[in-house]
Design brief:
By secondary structure, this protein is mostly helical. The protein is 87% helix and 0% strand. The chain has 4 helices and no strands. The longest helix has 26 residues.
Length: 71
């Protein structure tokens, strides 16, 4: 378990950056679908979950940076 935590602590910034890029891709695909079907009112809630996960990843990146500076 300690090896896994050490790996996650070491590469937290990179993993969260990849996760942010994934969620931005999801937002882009939803936006493209909305433009094609003119269905913004029906699908506007599909942007909430990716934005929340992006904010969570940014917070994780901040905490990882803070932990790195303490050590």
């Amino acid at each position: 378990m300690q090896k896994i935590l050490a790996f996650l602590n070491k590469y937290a910034f990179h993993l969260n950056l990849i996760i942010i890029l994934f969620w931005l891709y999801i937002i882009y695909e939803n936006f493209q679908h909305i433009q094609q079907n003119n269905s913004f009112e029906e699908r506007k809630f599909y942007f909430v979950v990716p934005v929340l996960f992006i904010l969570l990843s940014v917070f994780n990146m901040y905490m990882a940076n803070k932990r790195r500076k303490q050590n």
